[in-house]
User: Fold these one by one.
Assistant:
Number 1:
Amino acid sequence: MYYIHAQEFKKAGNRPFPISPAGLGIATTSVFIDPAISGAVNNRVELKASIGLRFVGVGNIRVLVRIWRAGKEIYYGLESNVFDNNIILNVETVDVAPLGVQNYQLIIENQTPATTAFVAGPLVFSATAYSG
């Protein structure tokens, strides 16, 4: 068994993200799945994200998180019933990816009218490839 790990950490600041179907790309990460290593065809890529969020507004706030690989959505999750104005949202999923370099993009979208949402930090997005 082998694994390769890549991680992006950003100090997010106070970046608003929109109410729109396009969302906002907030982080990227890449991992290389080496075809020369035996067992690489049976790979799994573990994707993890921790996103510090701040909300301005009242009521049930809904946030959609998406992960894309090679221009295609491979994960989406809706966080709802968020009544706290400051949260850290954690996301974890597993992807079965082809061999070679895989690039992942983390996208977030506010789905609650009359609210403003900010990526306030911390922001961590990682990919770890396992095979064997």
Number 2:
Amino acid sequence: MYLAEHQKLGALRAIKQIPRKEADATPVLSEALLLKNLKHPGIPIVFDLEEDEKNIYVIEEYIAGESLEAFALHQSKISEKKIIQIGIQLCDILIYLHGQKPSPLLYLDMKPEHIFLCAGQVRLVDFGIAAYLDGKRSAYPSYGTKEFSAPEQWTSDQPGVWTDIFGAGRILSFLSEYTSLPISRGLGRIIQRATQTDMKKRYATAEAMKQELVLLERQKIFKRKLRTEEHLLKKIAVCGSGIRCGTTHFSIALNSFFNEEGLRSFYREANDSGALWKIRKMRRRIVEKDGFLYSGHFCGATGLTDERHIESAFDFEIADYGCQVEDTAQIAYADVIILLLGARDWEKEEAWSAIERYRYCEGLVLVCNYGDEKTAREYAKRAGRRVYCFPLDADAFCVDAAKISFFRTLLQKERW
């Protein structure tokens, strides 16, 4: 391989030298002949084929950029926005390849080192095992890298456009390992569908996968626009009616839900329980970075956080006060005050007292714990206002269907 400069244009070119005696067998020449007929901004251009007595020369566009593999290693973190944009461009390339006439062209070798980023444009290189789905061949090359290849590439099953869709999904999965926060549920669903072992359960076309990525991107742009217009970090204070009524559990669950939904939030310990220190000590897979603890979808401020960056980096702050609010004036700053009410018989008197004490707080939301709907109705009748019933929950860090339903209802009805 040589790097050359066009004498008249001054443009750089990549020149592959192929010994003439190997030309009939080498995949390099086959790749060049294939690329010569393809015209897409995401695919390298083959300008010409030249020859002399000993060699054949393939003159190609020089790709000035870095591979996705190198890009991931050099970044401290990759945003979900960037992952979605890369996914959309990959789908665009696949739409073009699969739309070739008379037969779709399968790429079959998707992996990070074959994808280059050049000034924001995704470029797909190395078409050495690409093949037309023309029905004339009974077998396709079982090459590629198993980590990124679809299962049918290593069995007797016939590959198809769904094979490349699997590869694109694995690329998005690879990139998601380099995000600072867990990816959103929306992106997770797209990756999961694209990489199904059963090819029939994947996206039928690259266009269908692209449409879902574009929709997800639009949703995120809309959320960012709202944040820009409001210029506000919404502050939520979680308070308890008594000791051990579950404010820490609830706060962690709410924090995990927000982050899983793509609404950036962090947990702040505003009591002296030392719960955050215990979380750091007891949980196995926990990462500490830039003053925050990360575990799954949980993000907690350690107290060593740079406060200057919080306003722009997060949508919600969740402050866990436990039952240590002596005067409601100390939480008057909060946009939302969640009063968590104990539901056991010995907790009800304290709960009723707390309802009276917090009654006139602006932004007050009442929540009855332990999934006790009967007691929630009792409290609602006495308070003269809605009381939500938090479902019985074993794991605060796990975002399950019951909690998703509860918190989405809360968001919708309270219009946060």
Number 3:
Amino acid sequence: MRQAIHQILPMAIVDNYSKYLGQPTVIGKSKTQVFNFIQDKIWKKLKGWKEKQLSFAGRGTLIKVVAQAIPTYLMSNFLIPKGLCNMESMICRFWWGSNVDKRKIHWVSWKKTCKQKKGGGMGFRDLRAFNEALLAKQGWRILTEPNSLMSRTLKVKYIPHHSFFQAKKGTRPSYSWQSIHQTKWILKKGCFWIVGNGQHINIWEDRWINPQVGNTIWTTKPTNTPLQYVRDLIDPASHNWNPQIIKQNFIPIEANQILQIPLSYNLEEDVVCWQGTTDGSYTVKSGYNAQIEWESNNSAQAHTSNQLEDSPIWKNLWNIESPPKQLHLLWRILHNVVPVKSNLLKKGIVCDSICPRSNKSPETIDHTFISCDWARMVWFCSPITIMTTQIQPLTFSDWLRYMLTNSTKECMQIISTITYSIWLGRNNKVFHNKDTPASEAVERAMKTLSEYHHLVADRISSSKPPNSIVRNNISWSPPPSNFLKLNVDAHLTSDGRWGFGMLVRRDDGRCVGAATRVCNGDHDADMAEATGLFEALKLVEKNHYSNTIIELDAEKIMLVVNKHQFPISNWGQVVRMCDRVRVSLNHISVSWVNRKGNQAAHELARWAIQEPNKDWSTNFATCITPHIHKDMRIVNPLFSN
């Protein structure tokens, strides 16, 4: 056959291709040998960069944009062997400025630099966790795209009779399937089932009641129970929960939670939801962040270290509008990893510990930046005129932490640039024996800051959109002629119930109907607003309204309904039900209004607990009368009570 094709098409005949589209086609026992080429590729990139000419900020950018992006394509399909973790070692050496000829001190562990910036790290990728997050995306495709070619191929061979979560590795599996199977735990821990018909959800093993990551059902499985799948808890005739069975087999708190889960009219397929995103869809970024968070929570030192890691100082630090190299210096000061002489001695570097200016005091971080006479002069000459004697007895890092949480952004910009100028002056003295006058150091610092702000301002102005949309719907407006407007709002009470208020008004502003509804709920605001919209649609259906505009102040719910892009979540299921009901009714639209324009519905929602599940056509609740009159004056300024 090959010879016949070769005669027709002048193509070379080869026994096999070692790579296809950059991916290895044959993977034997030695995975390290197969994937070693990617490590060589990274090394060639790092070796070609001149690290001496780059600041920490510059090296960090190159690492994130280039070095850590190289293996992404390969890691999307294969689990890179742990033996290739030398990739991280190479990147780490480049970050600290090491090369073939000279080794530099690694002041902070690679694990710490891989933490998010808001947690005190540098935001570098943990390549192993990132590799697993990429592969979990393939598992997510199997779960959510069962008819894709990849899903059908893998299902036929490895999971013909089970769900993905129950899949085994199988006999003689391909390395691609082994890689996906090995990262299945991420989805199993972070996914949550949205109940449809209950056909695929195991009551006792899957997560479908408690949305907290890692939690399954609390109730102990009764012995010899016939209940296995969630479908066994649903009445097939009414398509509602069977409260008798649920209350008999579950602890009270869990029974109440089950009864609050919304079920659609036609009981669609069960849907798996990812907890890490707002729309319920898995992303590589959310999968990676989830792994980092789980690892941090499981760490033995998590309790003691999280206070500093979760501190707002890191977010405030990286929000300072100063050159990145200055922010990196502040980051190193806060971690006490600046190479002053006292720190070098702790690392075993043989040197004298005396400050090169005073020739008396040991050179520590505090002495270098606030105690040295020259540093004091620089701070005093700066635009913020700081007397460093007022800082002590605080350490410099403690003072920075205080300023990061209590000073203005403008003040922190000056502090960062003056700190960096002091460090430059120190280095000029140590390495070139050059003395820089304090006034010159301040002048140079402020010039650098000014140039940076001009550069950033030019970049922002060039990328700014030409026009922005201004919305003026901050007050209630009447519907068009021959239309009704139904305003609805939700209110969460202190005892955990939801109150809903609904008002129906004509184009002249007069109220022709109102209603309250109350139900048990939780603290999910999106679910409350979605349920409020559903109650409004049921009111329209009950009273046979047509040509009706339903108006609410939950912009997220309005956008989801009108764009028909329903998130994979419980409240997303409710909005999907709302859309179906809306389509079945006559000329019903959903729009958004500012909260100030929805005050009447808001007050009625608060009043709902006093008069629950009540409908009015006249003699409306007194709490909304002032708001109705106020809105009527918008239509007729001459209206009087």
Number 4:
Amino acid sequence: MKRLQNRIAESRFALITTSFLCAPIWMLAALVNIDNIVSVAVSATCISLATLLMAEVNNANSLIRIYSRMVSCIFLILMTITTYPYSSPGVALTALSVAWFYYCAFGCYQDTQRTALTFMAFTALGVCSLFFVQSLYFLPLLWCLYIVKLLAFSSRMFCASIYGILTPYWLLTPYILWKGDFNGIVTHFTALATYEQPLGAFFQWEPYQIVNTSLILLCAIIGIIHYLRTRQLDRIRTQLLYEFFIYVDFFAIVFLILQPQHYKYLLPIIIGNTAPLIGHFIALTETRWTNILTKLLLLLSIGVVMYNIFTHSNPLINGIHI
């Protein structure tokens, strides 16, 4: 028997409907941040492109065994309701970089000659590091996952990854030379050695940050547990790709716990890895309890977006004066 979650997951209009439902929230963000409407437009464009890339990642790699747009729908919903991208194009570009990386990297599966795709994948990481230099901490993990999950590592792929990371910085070199701001680039990389006490950073969190993170972590936990219980039903290739998501997701969550001051940049990374996991859960389960859990997640998502809109501590509302 097909339940509500299955009818939604298998609908051919799911992504279009989700886009229409998310659009008013972005328009409200533009109205509230009218002085920064360009930033909102850039953020919305980046999230839209990232959503399309996540849809292509799903299509090209058959992440879900049936026809379903849940991966891209969940990604768009979670990125929209967490609201932070509105005021920071850098955060939206981080989300786009995650989708871009997976779109290119997964095309290298079991092929050690796909240096062009590897170059483009790690260029995404390089672009991300322009805004969030700590994203370079993911580099050793990604190399390891290229070896054990994508089975696509070689000396040429290693060199391509290095060139990819350096390319955004090479492109910025003329601008840096023109400005003569050499201290800026030094400060940018010395941030890699900065460590803050996590408890102190947690105490500085706003309530909406706690609410947003709690929802995303709940989705991540549900998605990971579900996939570990049912992975034997997928092909070996699909299992390896989902394990790639799980390892990166776990690393990002641990990173967030250890350095919570990087919340706004780590959350899009967690969302990019959680969306395929929770999408798999919604699309491929059909029990009474999973249907109830899906409805609960939907209600929680609605509650979180309403909280983010109406709370005075959220950037979305700060511009409203009655």
